[in-house]
Amino acid sequence: MNNPQPKEWLSQDYSQNYIADYKAFNFVDGEGVRNSLYVSGCLFACEGCFNKAVQNFRYGKPFTQELEEQIITDLTPDYIQGLTLLGGEPFLNIEVCLKVVNRVRDTFGTTKDIWSWSGYTFEELLLESEDKLELLQKIDILVDGRFELSKRDLKLQFRGSSNQRIVDVKKSLEAQQVVLWDKCTDGKETFEQIKKADLI
Q1: Would residue 53 count as lying in a domain?
Q2: Distance between CA 33 and CA 81 in Å, rounded?
Q3: In this structure, which of 1, 42, 105, 160 has its CB flanked by the most CB atoms within 10 Å?
Q4: Would you say residue 55 lies in a domain?
Q5: pLDDT digits (tens, 9 = 90+) for 21-58
Q6: Number of structural domains in the chain
Q7: Would 158 be classed as within a structural domain?
């Protein structure tokens, strides 16, 4: 697992402006019905990463204006709660992510929320480059931290290991310390445990 120093990894040095996938109208990448943009490229290379192919910055296809228009169209219905940025590492794909985020804010204001997953922690991002800070300031929820295989926990909501957090970005920036998302509902049983109980 890689642990960068502040400003060691800059998006401009790595990003190829590629995306791995785009999935509209899903229920798994944050609260409510969401549209999810999976950007390509990640340097954290966490042990047990479930999607190693996406670590390549040229995996998938280039981000296009047509896709940007599609994302905005897909966000328009009232029942769509917001946009999610995943990867790969969104904070190493700043040009793509900021382009989309700025368009969402210009079009919808704050009526749509924006979530992002990142291998960076909230505290690390506060010490990062200006473009990373700009992206952080424009999102609502950050699921932060490297995936740690030794801390894997299937009962956690929206995250894979117990070191990861669901951070309310706006409240955290105001408080200058991490404030966790107050709607988190971690489970008490894993899917496997529930399934096994049903068979008894």
Answers
A1: yes
A2: 6
A3: 42
A4: yes
A5: 999 999 999 999 999 999 999 999 989 887 889 999 99
A6: 1
A7: yes
